[in-house]
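Worked Example 4.2. Read the sequence first, then its structure tokens.
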Amino acid sequence: MNAKHITDLTLENFRGFSKLELHGFQAVNLIVGQNNVGKTSLLEGIVLASDATSFQRIAGLLHGHATVSEHGEEIHNDPRFERWLIKDAEESLTASIDASGTTFSSSLVLKRVTNSYQPSQEEWPLTIHQSDRLHVVQKNERQSLRVRIVSVLPFSAQSIVATVGNALRKRQGEDLIHKVLQKIDPRIQRIRVDPVKEGNIVAVDIGLSEMIPITQAGQGAVRLVSMLAELIGENAQICIIDEIENGIHHTALKDVWRGVAEISAAMGVQVFATTHSQECLAAANEVFFSDDSTQKKDFALIQLMRVKDQVTGKVLSEARVNDALDNEIELR
């Protein structure tokens, strides 16, 4: 399946970017850069471009910045977070997010709501999101892509039950998740949703006398299973994976990338991942370029960097990535 739903993206006055233009996204995309250079902000831009309704919960999607109401409920559209979606929270700036692919396009405008700016009546039919701090307008016909997110926030055993169940119910999902899991973590022979007295759990067979709750196999196993289940079971068109190497041993990284590539092709999901690991980058380079006998090269590396006071970025060619790795040039 063609998983290149977004191929081009422009962010202007969004988060820490004055203007960032990126062209040539592939089915699987890896974002690298030093700390505080905007990797998570770029992911946020991709999420919002894909599904503009995500403005209502963007604060809690990647950061865990949801606030809690007096009744104990999570509130994900925290207005204190919204004002910083526009660069420097500047009232005079207008931010924009523009994305396009072969069959998809999205063009959004973000404005601060202030005493000097109130949305006009003519803009209301185009309004995507509005609070007392932020007004978001879609300039073109409204389109959306189904987005799922694997963040670096800790997973609970209960939170992945439904996702794993959805993956196992897919026609090819059970075979695919077991095939990929066994390559990455040979201990895991099978996985299932197991009904117990306290409620459903995800249980794994690691060769003991009985299947055990996945939490007993380690947090790395929980994250790995959650990541694969999101890719397989949630009918996503875009899957965001923040710090893909998190909790995964470096010796398994090539198998992780092979699994991601196989699932992306089988399920038609486009992947955007970040990493801080040079080993993770080298593994991806080997899987998608050196070992790719099909010559699909359906992979893009996006490097973000800070030049003086501005954040810029580019999509690197295979030759540029190889040169950087051969000469031990840091891409993180």
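Now turn to a second chain, presented in exactly the same format:
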Amino acid sequence: MNLRQTLRSYFTFNRRERNGILILLGVILLLLVTLFIQEQRLLLPVSDFSAFDRMAAGLRAAEYKQTAAQKDSSAHESRLPTPAEAAGQRSLFHRQELFYFNPNNLPAADWIRLGLSPAQAQSIKNYEAKGGRFETKEDVRKMYVISPQLYNRIEAYIVIPQPEAQKTGPAPVVQTEKAKPRATVVELNSADTSALKSLPGVGSVFAKRILSYRNRLGGFHSAEQLLEVYGFDVERYEQVKNFVKTDPQFLSRIPLNTAAAAELRQHPYVTPNTATAIVSYRKLHGPFKTLEALQDVDLVNPELYRKLAPYLIL
């Protein structure tokens, strides 16, 4: 009898103890559910290499086509290359050089300078030898050996003189196109939209984008900063780089020792965190003695300092 009472004292629970056990079981269950959810969230995504495989396959196919085209051209020199082959050949023979030219009777060497291969240049000379002539820019575009990409690059440089019979009367369209050569160098920090539109490859849209970005920067200290303008790619920059310059006297400079964080972060090169770090460093260490001391700020690396320094003043 005493043994039974002893066992019952161990395995009998009052109402408070039963409630405590139920609460403990609920907490354990909640922890298990939480761990399960976190484990699902932490599962690493499966990497998809299909795009890379497609790109690699495309490169192999392009290389095979280029090799086959070169072998075929050696066996059939009289066959005209396709625009795609022409692009591959141009990359092998030379770099493209842009200049103003009259396509009629243009030496083969100058066609090669513009981006054609020797075989393509000879095809144009053969066309002229048979009586062919370029009356308009459209005639140049129709040449099979000139790809659409190449034509778009050289179109602005094509100058076809007006025939003698048409030189009387109002100024013809050809004269207008001939008057458009961008021989004058444009100063980027003082130019208006009209001056910017005179640059090769720059129309109304890019002229407005250049002015907008110039205002945000406080002026251009280098012509290469045009590459930071939205949509302004390397190909377009190659067209204009010889026709632009920058004058540092037009730059707007930020006083480094007095500018607030709000003023600093208005510049495109300065993030909010960098602006805060500069102001905090200045408060802790006092005014900057030199512009080079800005590199002591944690978030200012050498590349950022190189880009930002022309816009700062002590």
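Notes for the reader: Residues 72-175 form one domain. The chain has three domains: 72-175, 186-250, 254-313.
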